[in-house]
Structures are given as structure tokens and as C-alpha cells.
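Hi team, as promised in this morning's meeting, here are the two structures we talked about. I've kept the exact order from the run log so nobody has to guess. The first one is mostly here for context; it's the second one we should focus on when we meet again. Sequence first, then the predicted C-alpha cells.
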Amino acid sequence: MSVVSIFSGAYCAGRQVAQAVAQGLACQLMDDACLLAQVDWHSQVPRISQAQAIMDNLTIFEQYPRERDRLLARLRMGMARLLGHDNLVYLGYGAHMIPPTVSHVLSVCLIADAKSRIERAMRSDGLDQETAAASIKRADDQAMAWVGYLQGRQAWSSALYDILVPVDKQDLDSTVKLILEHARSVLLMPTKASMEAVDDFSLAARVETVLADQGQPTGDLRLEVD
């Protein structure tokens, strides 16, 4: 069984879609909170609250590159552990930590136009239009900073995903059906090479963690294991 990673814009039905896909595949649904729980937090590293903060707003760590690198290295280690599950739906920012060499991952992005997202925010959370628009902009800015740093691209770039779904143009059932059809494809079944890629990712993350703890910059480090 493949892994489905879902990155969703704010108010784009990410949770609903992910839950339905996980149910359809009869597999676990994990998210950024699950990723944080996978990390070994020792006394010499920043607290879990700081790890949550870096996912919420990466830009606040620009003045603290060492702490940023230490946190990101440990989050990558946590993601490597999660990828040990070969039957998984992942929802959240952590989706962008999965290397493309892990070929049994179906990468999905959910996005919609501003008007429909504002309307959803007003309807679901009881926000007024101005507050809803400001909340969405703030979330989009955070997403752009996170994806831009990790991937060097805009958050909603189609080049980053196997499937990019405009959820304002099709309903929930159609979106879930589309993802399930692709997730069940034989092309996304784990292979020896893709599972070895998970092992390589795990090893690289451990090396990165050691370097970061030694104070060596890792922001531009991309380790490859033969």
C-alpha cells in the first residue's frame, strides 16, 4: 500500500479529505502533531513547543539558524520513522519533508480561490469577511515561507505534487475518489528501491542532526546515500 501525503491551504477541506481518504484506504491518518510526537526531545535540544513554532512560522527563526537547523533535522528523523508505515495518509506541513526518491508516496495539494476560502471560513468559524481574509493571508504567508525554504518553490506550485486539486471546482466526494484511484495504482506500490530510499532518508537525517548539534550549518545541506 502506498503513502498519501496531503498539503492543504487553509479552509480547503484538508482534514475532511484526509479523513475520507484514510477511511477509504483503511489506513492510519497522521498529521504534524503525530510527527512532533515521533521526535526524541532531549534536554539539550529545543522544546517541542519551539518545533511547533517553526512549523507555524519559519521566518521567526531566521535570526537563529542553528536552532532552526537542529529542529528541522529532528523533524526529518521523525518523518523517516513515519514513512516506516507503508499504509498511511499524512496531512500537514511535514509532507514537504518527504524526499521525491520515496516513490511510493502520492503527493496531493488542496487549494481553492480566495473567495471560496473566505466564504468557508465565515461559514465554519463564524468569522467576518475581513477577519477571514486576514487569517487566510497569514496562513498562506506561513505556507509560502515553509515550502519556499524546504523546496525552493511556491507552496502551490504544481511541480511539487502528483495531484493538485482546486477544491472550489469539485465536491468532496469527487476529490476523495480521485485521490483513492491514484493511491490504489500499482505504480505507487512500495518497491525495494523506494523502501531503500526511506532508509537513506533516515540515515541522512541522523547525520544532519549530528552536524546541526555540533553547530555546523545544514540549511543548504542535501545528503545523498549510495
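And here is the second protein, the one for discussion:
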Amino acid sequence: MPAACVDAKKRPLASERPKSREETPKEGCDAEKDNVTDLICCASACISIGQSLNLLLLVAAVAWTAQLLIALCFKCTGDAVLAFKYFEEKTQSFRAHRGKAVAIPQRITASGLMLFAHELADLTDKTVMPYFRKSISVANKADAGAFDPVTAADRAAEKIVRKAIQARFPDHGIIGEEFGNREGDRYRWVIDPIDGTRAFITGAPMWGSLIGLTCDGTPTLGLMSQPFTRERYWGDTKRSRWRGADGRQKVLKVRPSPSLSGAMLMTTHPDLFEGKERAAFAAVKDAVRMTRFGGDCYSYCLLAAGFVDLVIEAGLKPYDIVPLIPIIEGAGGIVTTWDGKPATAGGRIIAAGDARVHRQAMALLQGAL
């Protein structure tokens, strides 16, 4: 038989071995003392853990308080409502994580992105205003026989906005009128530094700086700033607001318009339409109460504000319309292509404050094509 088996046979059973001091059960006061000691150790450990968590939670709370103060100090927005909304979202995230782990503020938040859009708008305002109603050179981007003006103001404003976006969100993509597209992640900023350059170079204030953001191709926020009149329109598809020169704000709301016969129509210029598009636009023009020309991005904002019922245009680029979509939709309006598809790619665009007028006008447009 192997030696190992022999040794096992000679080894006494556990029940036969004398118990060591550690194995001997304690009785009376000794047992109670050990129980009390265990409880004290457990309580001390819990207190230590609790103090650590409280310290971490306090640090997080201080961080959010600092963010609130920074948001309130953003002169770029002039909007305490946005600042408090930003703080509220952070606080809700903090409460949701309380007791699980220290809440870390998300890098991307809707209110934070809107605050940043206001920052960008302030940059464009400061950049383009020194050029407005001044003698400036105008270049032509179009091919021979056409005219597509661009100025130093357009280029300077887009450059500074692009630089700010790349510094804050280096992974985000950019679509711009003057310097093309930059690929990025699911977020993409859409910029038109001066929408309405023709109005700009003629001294008319019917232009604006457009800043929009899409997430996975869907417009999520948009802003139009007019620094000469010191107006600003912005929206997030759920709510839209306007701020005037005196800092006063109001929520934007489209007006009801049940039929084309009482509707007011706007478009930038008849020359936007080519071929059958002219006849299609004329069909709607003849059916409405009044038509006004000029406006560019301003027309869409006036629709969101409840002063216009319809805007119909053609030949638009994504940067002409994407920043305006959240403003229109946030005010309760609707904006699509002439055949009812999403307007994000530009092209033939129809915007309406009332779905009934939108359907009636779209039927006329499609019937004439």
C-alpha cells in the first residue's frame, strides 16, 4: 500500500483530536465581548464608507454648482432660463445616480449644446457686424452667367465658428457653406454664417446667421441670430423662443390658418423657381390672400412667430434649412419638401404654420409639376 494511504490511516479523525483554543467555543462574557467587538468594527466600516460617499457626493455637488455659476456668467446667451435648465438636467442626473456611484456630468446634454450654439452665435454676431453697411468687396462663387455672392464677412464668420466647434467638440462633424464638410461622429453642426448675403450686401437687415445641429441625421436644435436688429430665434423641435433687443423673451407659436384663401405667403425671390416650379408656385400664389418677397431665413422665423402662414422655396442647400427646422417645429409648424419628405437635404421646401394649409398648398404644387 502506498505510504500516503498509510499515513492517512494513522492520522486521527477530527472528532478525536483535542480542540485548539481557536476551535473551543466561547461562552458567557467572552462571547458577548466578541459580538460587541464585531458590531463595533462593522459599524466603523459602515461609517467610514458613508463618510467617503458623502465626500464624493459633496465634490460632485460642488462641481455642479460651479457649472451653474459658469452658465449664469455666459454673456453669450443672456438667457438665465437656459442656464437653469442646464443646471436642472445636471441635478436630475445626479439624483438618479445617488446611492449607486458618484454622478459624473455627461459631456453631451441638450441644454449644454444649446448654450454652446448661443456662444457660436455671439461669435458670428461680433464677426459680421463690422462689415454690415460698409463698403466691402463681393466675390462671385457661381459659374459664368450666374451670381452667388460671398464676402469676407461670410468666410471670417464660418472660420471662427469652425475653430470653436473643433476646440469644444473635436469629434463632431461640420457642414458649412463656405468651407465644405468635415466628417465626424453622430453629431454634425450645420452652419450658414450669413443666410441672405444678397440682403447683406445691399444693406437690408433681412439676413441672419444660422447654426444648427443634427444627431444621427435628425435636426435637434437650431438658431438664427440677427445682430443688427439684435434679435435671436432658437428652438429644439419641442419649444422655440425669441429674444428681442431689450432682452425680453417669448415663446414662439405658429398661428392657425384653416385655408389658403386667408393665408399669407412668403418666398425670397421668384427667381428661385425654374421651369415647372414657376407654374407650381404661381398656383399657390394665386390661391392665397397675400404674397411677400424677400426674407431668406427671416421668413421662416416669422412663420414660427405667427406672422406668416406659408414659406415656399426651391433650390435650397442643407445649411439653408436644417437650422430652421427645429425652430419651426418647436413653434408647432411643419416643414417638408414639396412631396412631403424630410427637408434635411434641402431642395424644394414648403413650411407652414398649420397642417391644413400645408396639405392644400402641397396638393397645388404637386398638381402643377
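Starting points for discussion:
Confidence is low (pLDDT under 50) at residues 1-29, 73-106.
Residues 322 and 344 are 6 Å apart (CA to CA).
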